[in-house]
Amino acid sequence: MKTSHLAIISSLVALCVATNYALVGVPNVKVMDFIVFVGGFCFGITSGALVGILSWTVYGVLNPYGFVPQIWLATMFSESIYGVVGGLLGKNFASTDFHDQRVRLIIFFAATGFILTMVYDVITNIVYAWTLNIPVITTMAVGAPFTVLHEISNTQIFGIGSAMMVTAIRKIFQGERFGISSK
Fold it and tell me: Which of 7, 48, 49, 52 could cross-link 79 (Cys pair, CB 3.0–4.6 Å)?
């Protein structure tokens, strides 16, 4: 792995952790998921997955809400899904001109953010229920307001931010995606 690649992954992890601490008072509204997704989209599946796993490695151990190993592992795994899907989509969208299809892309990224967040929430809620020996249906019912807030906020963040962030990163890196050109 190149030094520049490691620097990008480290920077994205630091950004994820810093924004999570900055938003700690706002339950389930975070930009970490978005950063992991965009990291995967722009720099590939492995990079995206590493950003997700490493972000939760740090934030999960030093979590202001407490540390539970089973939930920590579930969040690391689930967060990496954002990066993997981002990486898969990034390969398919490598030559897409984001200026020509802005409205379609906003809808697509918003829907992607919603679906990925729903998957993340289902996995982490099941592990939470299993770990604390609570019926899954109870966990889902009690956690519904937080789940809905997480899904709605990520839908908006992904929809509004993805095309702009990917365009900015492409400009910075002149279209290079660590061996996969966007042109």
Answer: 52
Q: How far apart are CA 168 and CA 95, in angstroms?
A: 15
DSSP at 31? S
Give 88's contacts (C-beta < 8 A, 6+ positions apart): 40, 45
State CA 61 to chain mean position distance: 18
Q: 141-167: b or e for each residue (b if 16 or more CB lie within 10 Å)? A: eebeeebeebbebbbebbbebbbebbb
| CA atoms within 13 A of residue 117's CA, in its CB half-sphere | 27
User: Tens digits of per-residue pLDDT, 13-72?
Assistant: 999 999 999 999 998 899 999 999 999 999 999 999 999 999 999 998 988 888 899 999
Q: How far lies 139's CA from each of 128, 136, 158, 178, in Å?
A: 8, 5, 26, 41
List, for residues 119-132, the tens digit of each pLDDT value: 999 999 999 999 99
